[in-house]
Specification:
The complex is a heterodimer of chains A (162) and B (122).
Chain A (H helix, E strand, L loop, with lengths): L1 E3 L4 E4 L5 E8 L3 H9 L1 H7 L6 E7 L5 E9 L2 E14 L3 E8 L7 E10 L3 E9 L3 H9 L4 H17 L1
Antiparallel strand pairs in A: 1-2, 2-3, 3-9, 4-5, 5-6, 6-7, 7-8, 8-9
Chain B lengths: L2 H12 L3 H10 L6 H5 L6 H13 L3 E3 L8 E3 L2 H31 L15
Antiparallel strand pairs in B: 1-2
Classes of the chains: A alpha+beta (162), B mainly alpha (122).
Chain lengths: 162, 122
């Protein structure tokens, strides 16, 4: 199933348990890449507004590792960890992603930063998991109450910008 | 859990099986009988019937009352629900990347040295 509307495009493959997300940015690959490897910057955008992202381990180089926790009202609600399999400046990041508490669950994520005309960047994130049940479980997490909450905050933000 | 969520859970569980995904893919083209569905598979009619039953319980397919053939028919409404499900996931990603847009906008003018190495953040 492929859906590309305004902004983020998504491909949920029928043959392999993968999710591919494509998004373009009005910034150079160097900047988009940096927002993915600098822990202070990454913490500012990766989590929903209602949670604070707390980086606990961070070594963004080939063979390095990462971990962070999400806090809501000072209480930890979720934590994640993985390794940086490959970090190629401004071009590519290959990492693993595990949600702590999901037994044996791991995604392999391949991030590609492609330079576009006009100093823009196309980011492609391919996440592959071990089976369709896991993949569909990840997609269905969009049904969570937390997401609805996030959309409301986004609506507020958009209203302010309008 | 509301009714549509429960329905989606059943649909995704039913589709976790590769044979059932194949059956659904073929039914997307045209209705078919159980024996027609069984043909390309090295499986008994009974085994295929079981898979069809799972799809039926998940609300993905229906079987007509035509006593002789009872062709299997794909119910498209479940797929519309799934499309909505994927759309929600997409919007979640879009929300995240709008935060990144904001950040990139703030980064725009400043000259900051590269920071890709190990950092003490404890």
């Amino acid at each position: 199933m492929t859906m590309i509307t305004h902004g983020t495009g998504i491909v949920v493959d029928e043959n392999i348990p993968a999710i591919e997300i494509v998004r373009e940015f009005d910034a150079a690959p160097e900047q988009v890449f940096r927002a993915h490897v600098d822990p202070e910057l990454y913490a500012q955008w990766v989590g929903p507004r209602s949670v604070a992202t707390r980086i606990t381990r961070w070594d963004a180089r080939t063979g390095g590792e990462w971990a962070f926790a999400d806090d809501r009202d000072g209480e930890e609600i979720a934590s994640f960890f993985g390794s940086f399999h490959e970090v190629r400046p401004h071009e590519r990041i290959v990492r693993t992603f595990t949600c702590e508490g999901a037994p044996d669950g791991v995604a392999l994520e391949i991030l590609t930063f492609a330079e576009l005309a006009g100093g823009r960047t196309r980011l492609t994130v391919l996440s592959v998991v071990e089976d369709f049940t896991t993949r569909d479980g990840i997609v269905s997490s969009g049904m969570d109450v937390g997401v609805i909450e996030g959309f409301e905050k986004l609506d507020e933000l958009l209203a302010k910008e309008a | 859990m509301d009714d549509s969520t429960e329905r989606l859970d059943r649909a995704f569980a039913a589709l976790a099986d590769p044979i059932r995904r194949d059956l659904v893919a073929r039914l997307a083209g045209a209705d078919a009988t159980v024996s027609e569905l069984a043909e390309p598979h090295d499986m008994s009619l009974q085994a295929i019937s079981k898979h069809v039953k799972v799809l039926q319980d998940a609300g993905l397919v229906t079987r007509s009352k035509d006593a002789q053939r009872r062709p299997v028919h794909l119910d498209s409404s479940v797929f519309e629900l799934m499309t909505k499900w994927i759309e929600r996931y997409r919007r979640q990603a879009e929300e995240r990347y709008r935060r990144l847009d904001d950040l990139l906008g703030r980064m725009g003018d400043e000259e900051v040295p590269e920071q890709t190495g190990a950092k003490d953040v404890s």
